[in-house]
TrEMBL record:
Highest taxon in the source lineage: Eukaryota
Pfam assignment, any one: Complex1_LYR
Span of domain Complex 1 LYR protein: 3-56
Protein name: LYR motif-containing protein
Family statement drawn from the similarity comment of this UniProt entry: Belongs to the complex I LYR family. LYRM9 subfamily.
């Protein structure tokens, strides 16, 4: 659970780097995704790892879409792949 909260926090930090008019959409999108997967068994490390990796890859895609430097997600990558 702690790792999931760290990933969520990092995703929200990345949302702040997006253009102002897009932030509410992506903040809501991130929250909805984390809420949708809250029932995942905390002991199922494979499922959690896949969700964390997906969070990272989706974040990279969004950063690239808005021409935000990908290195902004280095901390998220560190959390997701630790």
């Amino acid at each position: 659970m702690e790792k999931a909260l760290r990933v969520y926090g990092e995703v929200l930090r990345l949302v702040r780097r997006l253009p102002k008019e897009t932030r509410p959409y992506y903040a809501k999108y991130a929250r909805e995704n984390f809420v949708n997967y809250r029932e995942v068994d905390a002991g199922d490390t494979n499922a959690l790892d896949e969700l964390f990796h997906r969070a990272y890859s989706h974040s990279i895609w969004v950063l690239n879409k808005y021409s935000v430097d990908q290195s902004a997600a280095d901390k998220l990558k560190e959390v997701c792949y630790d």
